[in-house]
Amino acid sequence: MIFDIWIIMRILIVEVNWLGDVLFSTPAIKALRKKFPDSFIACLIVPRVGEILEGSPYINELIINDEKGLHSGFWGKLRLAKELRKKKFDLAILFHRSSTRALIAYLAGIPRRVGYATWKRRFLLTDCLPMPKKDSTHRVDYYLDIVKALGCDSEDRLYEFFTTEEDVRFARDFLAAEGIARSDFIVCLNPGGNWPPKRWPKENFAGLADKLIGSEQAKVVFCGSQNDRELIADIVSQMSRQPEGSSLPSDRQSHQPIIAAGRTNLKQLAGIFKRADLVISGDSGPLHIAASLGRDIIGLFGPTSVRVSGPLGRGKIKIMQKDSDCRIPCYDKDCRDNLCMQKITPEDVFSEIKDFLAVKKNLSF
Q1: What pLDDT, on the 0 to 100 scale, is given for residue 179?
Q2: How confident is the model at residue 328 (pLDDT cuts 50, 70, 90)?
Q3: Which of 6, 20, 210, 327 is at 20 to 30 A from 92, Cα to Cα?
């Protein structure tokens, strides 16, 4: 694939719809900016993941694809294509595999359209890449390989999430208001996930939180979105009301976790992660945000592939995934047994936490 980089002045990246995958695409965006330092780069993105790319120094504009509102339906998509046509892009890079979005790029009159070829949209692309085999490629490399075809450097695989001083101040004030001091051992637990089989059982999160608070005097912060609040309330209801063997009211109060779910946006959540000593989560957007910030993390994996979506970062990373009688990964969103996640016990995770603490203690000497 040969491009004259001198005439590629306006680039449109057609982004994906999921928090983790948008994060996974950021090394490709960085590589693209390095290759085209003077070009105008815009990203077409759905509203719910816009925060992931806000503040990126590699992007000139975020264009919102309001697929449930202004750009919904046939006429809405034509409206979006018309809006994009006015921006006179030279090149479209389709991270999303959607045939509809390839059609929008075509109708927008963008002369070069690069992406993975599927039989439905091959004719809509000017430059086609063969689809990688299933579960053979990490999602970071999946996106990097697209821009690599344009001559971009693909060595930097660490994804990035940008925060501001305001986000850091929010986290500082939020934690202080909850009685958390800078010297406290802070553990963030993220029990949510975009489909139930990826979630660790509620009783396991409750048991782990009890162990963290009772044995390590940790400050446990439950993170997530507004949609996770009911789930977290159920988890908290299954926790002990006080440390084992104590009846003091002060101990009962100190045993309560902090619930941040629904009280932060993604940038503010990242600010809290920056203060955390450890983040524990299933395969989810918040797990990868924590990894992007260089935090120490424990990832709880079940029906998804570590090879495809395992976290990458500068911090210490431990992946926990147990063998089961099932085929792993299965990506079965309708699984009711969830055996792969159930096999990871609170004791297993707590043992890993003790190892983290031992390493941290040794490094402090």
Answers
A1: 94
A2: confident
A3: 20
pTM of the model: 0.91
Pick from 18, 53, 8, 14: which is nearest to 193 by CA?
18
320/301 Cα distance (integer angstroms): 6
Query: Which residues are within 8 A (CB) of 365 and not within 5 positions of it... i.e. 6 or more apart?
Result: none
Query: Which candidate, 125, 51, 61, places its Cα nearest to that of 95?
Result: 125
Domains in the chain (CATH in brackets) are: 10-148 (3.40.50.2000), 165-363 (3.40.50.2000)
Question: What end-to-end distance do the CA atoms of the chain give, in Å?
Answer: 54
Q: Measured between alpha carbons, how far is 275 from 287 in angstroms, rounded to an integer? A: 15
